[in-house]
Amino acid sequence: MPATRTVVLILLTLLAFAGNSVLCRIAFKETSIDAASFTSIRLLSGALMLWLIARFWRRVNRGKGNWTSAVTLFVYAAAFSFAYISLTAATGALILFGAVQATMIGHGVLTGERLHKQQFIGLILALVGLVGLLLPGLSAPPLIGSVLMFISGVAWGIYSLRGKGTDDPIRITAGNFLRATMLAALLSLALISGSNLDIVGVWYAIASGALASGVGYALWYTVLPAMKATNAATVQLSVPLITALAGIIILGEPISIRFMLASLAILGGIALVMMHKEQSISIDTGGSVAVEEGQG
Known about the structure:
This is Membrane protein. By secondary structure, the protein is mainly α. The chain contains 11 helices and 2 strands.
């Protein structure tokens, strides 16, 4: 793949991943759509887009997903939506990213991976940044929203770990999205008394599912083979920063000193862990890279 095309596709992919947070936050700030409906529409739109891509542009035809992965995908998407009722786009993206990577790193440690000194320092730095962001104070994010986003990130990380080594990640992700849609529909039915299908909010949910999720993942899977493993693992560090910039420009969100210091600690710490040595990767449902030691 030509270098220029690779760079363009990477940029488009990162914009799509950041777009999920921005679109979700815009929907809850500027429309009256409820979180359960947003989740259902996002998952259904993503499933349809991924199915179309797998059907017409992918050659491999193996894998349909499974219910266990679909449950973790549903928890990620639902908690993500409900968290963004109160969180800013930038804060939500940073907590999500930190929780995903904490899950990945924690899994590696529990399965026998040894952290080198640089990695251990990076992990401590990231945890200090996350705790500092969430400590009570005037500029602290809402507790319930923060907890929900952390749960979303853990679920996202688990989904990613379960999805390693698949033959056709787009088709499998489409199957998991479809199953997760059924779970989201049950949630919408349970909360139907508070449902509100605001038409503009519906379009934001469709854009989040079909474009930011479906097309975003397809772009990432396309460009991934042309990237070095370490590069693929580290480019995702820019997603919370892109989200923060979009939040400032589009939503007029303020960025506090606490957020900036926490961002430096979290992103810098995770970078130390990732960049210690060559790493192999797999992809999770939200576009983040699952880091796994091994074949570089």
